[in-house]
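User: Some background: our group keeps a shared notebook of sequences we're curious about, and every so often someone picks one and asks for a predicted structure to add to the entry. Today it's my turn. The entry only has the sequence so far, pasted here. Could you supply the structure so I can complete it?
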Amino acid sequence: FINNFYLFNNKICEFFLLDGPPFANGDFHIGHILNKTIKDILIKIFYLNNITLLSNNGSDCHGLPIELKVENNNKNYKKLSKSNFREKCRNYANKQVIYG
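Assistant: Of course. Here's the predicted structure to add to the notebook entry:
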């Protein structure tokens, strides 16, 4: 199985597209729609031209911007324990990401 993981239609995948969550560190805006639309068009172009593309949804919640948002929303963030700060970051990220 592992040896054949990147095989698609008996051909080694020529391209790999890893698509992360659209808005883990801020509010949804028109740029997210543009980003998803461009990726969708590229996937279809590759498919129609018989170019193998492995497209996978990934997850990268962009830690530093989330930490900065939490710091800006909590003026006393320096008094928080590390675990409490991470919990606030996790909660903020979960509110921003749509799973489904």
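Suggested note for the entry: The mean pLDDT is 77. The radius of gyration is 18 Å.
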